[in-house]
Amino acid sequence: MSSLLLNEDLKNVSRKFAEEIMQTTVFKKFQITRSAILGDEAASSIMNLLRDEQERLLEISCERDIEENDFAELNNLHEKANNNQLIRSYLEAEKSLFQLTQALNTEITSLIGFDFALSVMHRDDDNEEAAWE
Questions:
Q1: Contact 53, 72 (CB under 8 A)
Q2: Is the pLDDT of residue 124 over 60?
Q3: Which of 1, 54, 60, 66 falls between 20 and 30 A from 113, CA-CA?
Q4: Is 47 exposed, middle or buried (0-12, 13-18, 19+ CB in 10 A)?
Q5: More confident residue, 99 or 115
Q6: For residue 30, which of 41, 19, 22 has the smallest C-alpha distance?
Q7: pLDDT in tens, 24-47
Q8: 84 CB-near residues (< 8 Å, 6+ apart)
Q9: Superkingdom of this entry's organism (predicted)?
Q10: How far apart (Å, rounded) are the C-alpha atoms in residues 67 and 65?
Q11: How far is residue 57 CA from its own chain's centroid?
């Protein structure tokens, strides 16, 4: 659907905007720390285990209420992540990138004079039935 809304001029401006974002120190630091995580066996293992454990807890939550003891492994993995300097650096870089995107969104919405957070949620007409289930 988004491709229907974007003409070539908007696509080109969006591409240029993304290129500008990728030139920021914030984005470069994120990329560097992300690459470092992927290249470090211990750090990438912890990150993969964290993701898997979060998925496991999500599955449990679909079947039953999550109990405190269900969080034991997740807490253990969080502790390992907090003790890993590379992971801490990555998470800080990720947080900074998230803050940058929030600031950019705020700037864009203020420039066009529309606060999406205060607007009514819109759904695709194709998905309307799913929204009411």
A1: no
A2: no
A3: 1
A4: buried
A5: 99
A6: 22
A7: 999 999 999 999 999 999 999 999
A8: 42, 43, 46
A9: Bacteria
A10: 6
A11: 19
Tokens of 25: 């120190």
How does the average pLDDT of the chain come out, rounded?
88
SS (H, E, C) 29-48: HHHHHHHHHHHCHHHHHHHH
End-to-end CA distance of the chain: 23
Per-residue pLDDT, 121: 60
Tokens 């502790």 correspond to what residue?
79
CB atoms within 10 A of CB 29: 17
- Please calculate the CA angle 39-78-51 and round it to the nearest 5 degrees: 60
Secondary structure of residue 79 in the 3-state scheme: helix
Spatial CA neighbour of 94 closest among 37, 49, 53: 37
Q: Write down the residue that tokens 């491709």 correspond to.
A: 3
Question: What are 15's two structure tokens?
Answer: 């591409």
Domains in the chain: boundaries: 8-112
Query: Which of 39, 70, 74 minimizes the C-alpha distance to 54?
Result: 74
